[in-house]
Design brief:
elongated, five-stranded parallel sheet, 47% helix, alpha/beta, binds adenosine-5'-triphosphate, 14% strand, 473 residues, binds magnesium ion
Length: 473
């Protein structure tokens, strides 16, 4: 399988460059350069080194580096000036500065000049590798953000459903196969996962696209009203029935009837619905004749219908009748970098609506969005982006434009780095599990590529997935 273009491109590119990334070490001390070459090389980076700032800048014009490590005292230039030059010419390449122990002021000056981070001498190679690794990850995330705009346009999608995660591609496969059939479809999923979006897409992609799409929310009205809405009524059927009215089943003929929140369907009405679906005829309230209809039925619920069946709140026979094909919408937190793709999609939409020049997300904002659990799923993300576009004073949505609960998220690598709140600490294997799944999702399930990025062989990856109960699909 080839990795799709777009958000995952940066990860794939990082993999192609060597798992750890390409690092340029600048120090006029050859010995230290060689030490870094061996030490970082052993830890998965591909290392080049230069002993002067001019040489380093020259190399950066020709080659692509993921990070630069520089000493402060260079022969031909101050390390801080080198930072400033890199920040001006190649703002995408993070610089890590090596400072002398105790010289916090120069470290701060370096950060001001655009350095990503600093490390004090003498240092452990392991600590340098950790800092460089974070710098490379930071760059990868930045690239990912830059690529998102294009990705939104090129993204694989089904109709107007945005997303290209493995979970969503499985949904598209299923929708593709069932769109042109007449079989009843039950769409389940947490609130805001896009169940109605799916119902509409099925309609538009099906044979009945030219017919009507008629939607009704089964939770929105009392039983008697719902019955006359669905089945229609004869003139004089009840006090207000001054004229006969065609029900929604009949109105949907030639098209699709969408029974939203079907789990809330009153128990008393369920046998009548079942009968209508079986016989493809309805009896209007207060009438004596029957009316045939020819509509495809798509139903949706965020309830667990199987336990509703067990608790006798939902008829088993009706459940089987509507659940011929089951489309389970994955929660947004299981869709990996679709979060960023959708965020960019909504951002562009709301920016256009508000005629405001907002073009993307800052890397830090993207990171918070990726880490938040999104209990309200895509709807919550859409609301979050609408608010952010309205609030932001920049072209890029910043962390401060996000709601508090999204901002307060700390990513797993921040937990690793700081770890000051014990309640957020988790076992090492849990960190590993989350990260492995995230990488897998980012490379669209490509195990060879994922194993390369993670530095495992394929067998090890399979063994781990097996232990965590993840099907090697
Ligand atoms: N994959 C997607 N791509 C683009 N927009 C989406 C996607 N999924 C959901 N949306 C948007 O998110 C919002 C919520 O989607 P929808 O109303 O379909 O969710 P739902 O599952 O029916 O939620 P509920 O259970 O609360 O009724 C809508 O504005 C919809 O357009
Ligand atoms: Mg809905």
């Amino acid at each position: 399988m080839s990795a799709p273009a777009g958000a995952v491109g940066a990860v794939a590119a990082a993999a192609a460059r060597g798992a750890g990334g390409r690092v340029l070490v600048v120090d006029d001390d050859r010995g230290l350069c060689e030490l870094c070459d061996v030490g970082l090389g052993r830890r998965g980076f591909s290392v080049a080194w230069r002993t002067s700032a001019e040489e380093a800048l020259e190399s950066m014009r020709d080659g692509d580096f993921d990070a630069v490590v520089t000493d402060l005292n260079l022969r031909d230039m101050n390390g801080i000036d080198l930072c400033a030059r890199v920040a001006a010419n190649r703002p995408d390449v993070p610089v890590v500065v090596i400072t002398a122990f105790g010289s916090l002021e120069t470290a701060i000056a370096a950060i001001r000049a655009g350095a990503y981070d600093f490390i004090t001498k003498p240092f452990e190679m392991e600590a340098l590798a950790l800092t460089v690794r974070r710098a490379v990850q930071h760059r990868t995330l930045r690239e990912e953000v830059v690529r998102l705009r294009r990705a939104v346009k090129d993204a694989q999608r089904f109709d107007d459903i945005v997303g290209q995660s493995r979970a969503m591609r499985a949904v598209y496969d299923l929708l593709e196969r069932v769109a042109s059939s007449d079989a009843s479809v039950l769409v389940t999923g947490e609130s805001g996962t896009g169940k109605e979006v799916v119902a509409r897409a099925l309609h538009r992609r099906g044979r009945r696209a030219a017919g009507p799409f008629v939607a009704i929310n089964c939770a929105a009205m009392p039983e008697s009203l719902l019955e006359s809405e669905l089945f229609g009524h004869a003139k004089g059927a009840f006090t207000d029935a001054k004229a006969a009215r065609t029900g929604l089943f009949a109105q949907a003929s030639g098209g699709t009837l969408f029974l939203d929140e079907v789990g809330e369907m009153p128990v008393g009405l369920q046998p009548k619905i079942l009968r209508a679906l079986q016989e493809r005829r309805v009896r209007p309230v207060g009438g004596d004749g029957e009316v045939a209809f020819d509509a495809r039925i798509v139903a949706a619920t965020n309830r667990d219908l199987e336990s509703a069946v067990e608790e006798r709140r939902f008829r088993e026979d009706l459940y089987y009748r509507i659940n011929v094909i089951h489309v389970a919408m994955p929660p947004l937190r299981g869709r990996g970098s679709d979060v960023l793709l959708l965020a960019q999609h909504f951002l562009e939409r709301f920016a256009a609506q508000a005629a405001k020049k907002v073009t993307g997300l800052s890397p830090a904002a993207a990171e918070r969005l990726m880490g938040y659990a999104w209990p309200g799923n895509v709807r919550e993300l859409a609301n979050c982006m609408e608010r952010a576009v309205a609030l932001t004073q920049y072209e890029q949505v910043a962390v401060e434009d996000l709601p508090d609960k999204v901002r307060s998220y700390r990513s797993s690598h921040l937990i690793l780095a700081s770890g000051d709140d014990p309640s957020e600490l988790v076992p090492m294997e849990e960190i590993e599990r989350r990260y492995v799944l995230r990488v897998l999702d980012a490379v669209a399930g490509n195990k060879t590529l994922a194993a390369q990025i993670l530095g495992f062989d394929r067998k090890t990856l399979y063994r781990k997935l097996d232990r965590w109960g993840v099907a090697p699909g």
